[in-house]
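Researcher: Checking consistency across runs. Here is Aminotransferase class V domain-containing protein again:
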Amino acid sequence: NVIEVPHSGPPEFRVDANEYLPQIKKHAPKLILLTYPDGNYGNLPEAGRLGEIAQEYNIPYILNGAYAVGRMPVSMEMIGADFIIGSGHKSMASAGPVGVLGLKRKWEETVFRKSDTYSNKDIELLGCSTRGVPLITLMASFPYVKERINHWDEQVSKAQWFSAELEKLGFKQLGEKPHRHDLLHFDTPVLYDISKRVRERGYFLYKELKERGIWGPQPGLARSFKLSTFAADRQQLGFVIDSFKAILNKYS
């Protein structure tokens, strides 16, 4: 069974590491997992605090760093996790699908145990392992990824600036404030109001952005959307902000 630790609800949707304690005491889990940051709101829970709890109760701890490893400084050892997961295609500038797994040495024989029948086969690797373009591009990305995490403070500052500018337009950033990651989630009631009175409904936003050379939003969505500011510079983000201003002025 999977037991989910509740979040704080809107507007921040925080996960408090201390909320794991009641679930641990009640269910005595074999494994605990924390997604850092979460993929919906870009919140960064207290991963180190959960590491302390995991060690106190002697429970293996997985840190899902799909949006952390390769973007920002993160240390499995300092956090106190037993395992850390990274995503090559989400955060390490490589083709996908591909990921990486780090673990403490004490888990090596368990995770990488060999088949009794086929001595070269790792039991936990189902089918073929990674090969070809995903593997090559993952390896090629390492020097770039290692360097770019040194600029994480700049990425956070850029995301906070972008969020503040969109909130001036009537958008509402969900998740932690001040925000500490480039993943952002906005409620957009002003755009949703427009969608209710135009022929295209929610598709109007996709159409307007596409005409301005902006791609990414899911067609039909106008009530809310998620985005990342990581790969864009301030000039490009400024163009996005100005585009939203122009769209709102057009339908005002």
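Researcher: Does this match what you'd expect to see?
Model: One thing to look at in this run: Residues 150-250 form a domain with the Aspartate Aminotransferase, domain 1 fold (CATH 3.90.1150.10).
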